[in-house]
Write a structure and sequence with these properties.
15% strand, TIM Barrel, 12 helices, alpha/beta, single chain
Amino acid sequence: MEGSNQVRDVHGRPMGALRISLTDRCNLRCRYCMPEEEYAWLPRADLLTFEEIERLTEVFVSVGVDKVRLTGGEPLLRRGLPDLVRRLAGVPGVKDLAMTTNGVLLGRNAETLREAGLHRITVSLDTLRPDRFTELTRRGTHGDVLAGITAAVATGLTDLKIDTVVMRGFNDDELVDLIEFGREMSAEIRFIEYMDVGGATHWSKEKVFSRAEILKEISSHYGSCEEIRKTDVAPADRFRLPDGTVFGIISSTTQPFCATCDRSRLTADGMWLRCLYAMTGTDLRTPLRDGATDAELRELIAGTWQRRTDRGAVDRLSQRETGRVFVSVESLKRDPHLEMHTRGG
């Protein structure tokens, strides 16, 4: 999005994409995201109302945002979600309204969301094997996720994507199966390197199955993969198989894309984070509820972005040789905003 209202940071990166977390709650307990037994949840009274989310979205759009993605936790746990989708779909300047979900509740909601104005769906699915799914998520809802993907296809939601976090020794032997499943569902599979973010307290570099290894595994089965020239700043690098099938790789761990990152995140209680790896953010809920005008909110957001220097994944790459986890369990309990399921992935 180019124009007089576009704000750029210290490195010249525009503000283009906003990920809005609707809740920190989730109905799965994926071991790479929520491995602990207990969590400090955001107080419900602190959660932004739909009216507040709509208003903040309008302010963000006024300084350059044109892509909005609803996340969580699990966004489908937020009551009345179709109403919010209608509100955001009606905000002038929102060109792309998408949602990332674990798919468990998608089957009963896909049609309603499409009718409300949702443009695109991304479903997280790390394995096609029910036993592995149960081991990873500690829930037995694998069939519900598959039904949700089927429902999304049936509703006519276009540009369906399936995100898979690849972990060495767990699901790195399913890459070809997942590509074939994606082909069957008319969905694009995106393989994500395992990242040491927030609640990934059991992360280790030995578990990372790298972009290079993913490409080697897929090429050994299908033949040479052609990299598709990028025309946007989306996080995934995309590749085409000899038969035309396209898949993506998000390689934040081994090949960070900080130089072109235009994304920021708004937590369910109004904390604005400019980087997935950020340790602190900007509280937007307090000024919003204290009566700040749109102009004052715009000045706060634009000024903060203009001072943005974040290159979290690049910085982590230079420090990662130690193999340590960057956020301790004690830190997570003190500040739930550090959790992956709070900041929206």
